[in-house]
Design goal:
four-stranded mixed beta sheet, alpha+beta, single chain
Length: about 325
């Protein structure tokens, strides 16, 4: 019996990796599966096969983990962080996955599966893979490492490099169980004292020149009147709902968890917020232009009624100019 075309198409979409259940659902007899296994196919995990005997790639390992964990599982922690482009380079063993409780945590060969009750995150779909969102991946990766300094480096580095937002990391630290929360909270406090990137720090110094810009907040939580979360601005003037965002090509060249590229402020504009976008290059080389752009934005914001958005300072992270 030949392998059905639908199986070949499925295998192509899954980087040459399929599950035994997928093969049987497509009508491939168990005897044929056994005959090919070890001859023409390679077993990667129990019930998961690669339809060749070549070298295993990182992507094939991830697909195999996803198929073994099932459609309700998703890649987590350091594994998810590596896929998003953060943390140490390269895929490390074991591959880490979540499954929803009451499924059980277990270790199978090079795969580590953890059961979780926190299932309300926005999981990222990427082809056959389901991946934890960036901020949760950062927090879980930091919680998993044994070395406290490494945990702090993961959180502080991710925030300082604008890989994730401080507020989003704070959320996932807050909703975790208490295990490891002390060092995670300490890392957040360290990030808070220097969480801004260099361009944002330079911008704050520039804007302090004008008394009209007193009372700036850093990274407030902003929602609509219906409590729908909006993009967190880098700086905010609450009296008139003015948001200032630093758009960096380095950090916004790919789709980020809180929105996409330089369109990350669209939800703010749709809510009626006056947004002033700036770039690190302009901040570094033309401070006067930055100041005038923000003052012009302030004038526009003052000329219209304040929209019904709600901003909340980030406790110690609020900055008053």
């Amino acid at each position: 019996m030949q392998i059905p075309d639908e199986v070949r198409a499925l295998a192509e979409a899954q980087s040459g990796v399929v599950s035994r259940a997928q093969l049987e659902a497509a009508g491939v007899p168990p005897g044929l599966i056994r005959w090919h296994s070890g001859r023409h196919w390679r077993s990667l995990l129990p019930g998961v096969l690669m339809l060749n005997t070549g070298a295993l790639t990182d992507l094939q390992r991830l697909v195999a983990a996803q198929l073994y964990a099932g459609p309700a599982g998703w890649l987590r922690g350091e594994t998810a962080l590596a896929i998003h482009g953060g943390g140490p380079t390269g895929l490390r063993s074991p591959v880490q996955m979540f499954v929803p409780h009451p499924q059980r945590s277990r270790r199978v060969m090079w795969l580590s599966i953890a059961a979780t009750r926190l299932t309300n995150e926005r999981v990222i779909d990427r082809g056959p893979l389901r991946i934890s969102c960036r901020p949760r991946a950062v927090v879980d990766a930091a919680a998993d490492v044994a070395d406290e300094r490494q945990a702090r480096a993961i959180i502080v580095g991710s925030i300082q490099e604008r890989f994730v937002r401080l507020a989003d990391v704070q959320h996932w630290v807050g909703v975790r169980r208490r295990n490891g929360s002390v060092r995670l909270t300490a890392a957040l406090a360290e990030a808070a004292t220097g969480a801004w990137s260099l361009p944002e720090s330079d911008l704050a110094r520039v804007l302090r020149r004008s008394p009209r810009l007193a009372g700036l907040w850093a990274n407030p939580a902003v929602t609509t009147s219906d409590k729908v979360p909006l993009t967190t601005p880098d700086l905010w003037i609450d009296e008139v709902a003015l948001a200032i965002l630093v758009h960096s090509r380095r950090f916004h060249s790919e789709v980020l968890d809180w929105d996409a590229t330089v369109l990350a402020d669209k939800d703010l504009r749709d809510a009626g917020v006056e947004v002033v976008p700036l770039t690190p290059n302009v901040i570094a080389n033309d401070a006067d232009t930055c100041l005038q752009a923000v003052l012009a934005g302030l004038d526009r914001a003052m000329s219209r009624p304040r929209p019904p958005v709600i901003a909340t300072p980030r406790d110690a992270w609020a900055w008053v100019g």
